Amino acid sequence: MTLRDSEPRYVISIAARMVGIESYTLRYYERCGLVKPYRSEGNIRYYSESDVECLRHIKTLMNNLGVNLAGVEVIMRMAEKMAEMQRQVEEMESEVKQFRQAGIEMKRNIKKKGD
Q: What CATH number did the domain enclosing 9 receive?
């Protein structure tokens, strides 16, 4: 996801039309915590590209796969946790790589001192 994808740009009626659902459904999804659109100072909801993609995913889960709203909430939370865990794994892999590189450098330095 790029920074541009997270920029709020669509009012609720446009976002609803893009996804193919009603505005009141978006309000309900917000109350359930499935989506958190940006709120302007005038309290107007603005949806980003990533919000719209999330809404499309929710619609697919419900309409095409028959998942109910409670199931969607569980799936969305699990997906968030998995993404966070993946980020942590990548961070740890990077640290391991740095430690290995540092170990290689230490061995080189020890070998040079021994020569």
A: 1.10.1660.10
Report the pLDDT value the prediction gives residue 112, as an integer from 0 to 100.
Answer: 80
Q: Rounded to two decimals, what is the model's pTM?
A: 0.73
Per-residue pLDDT reduced to its tens digit, 36-91: 999 999 999 999 999 999 999 999 999 999 999 999 999 999 999 999 999 999 99
Q: How many CB atoms lie within 10 A of CB 109?
A: 10
80: its two tokens: 């968030």
User: The tokens of 21 are what?
Assistant: 């659902």
Phi, psi of 9 (to 5 degrees): -150, -20
Cα–Cα distance, 54 to 39 (Å, whole number): 17
How many domains does the chain contain in total? 1
Q: Find the length of the chain.
A: 115
Provide the residue type at 80 as one letter.
Answer: E
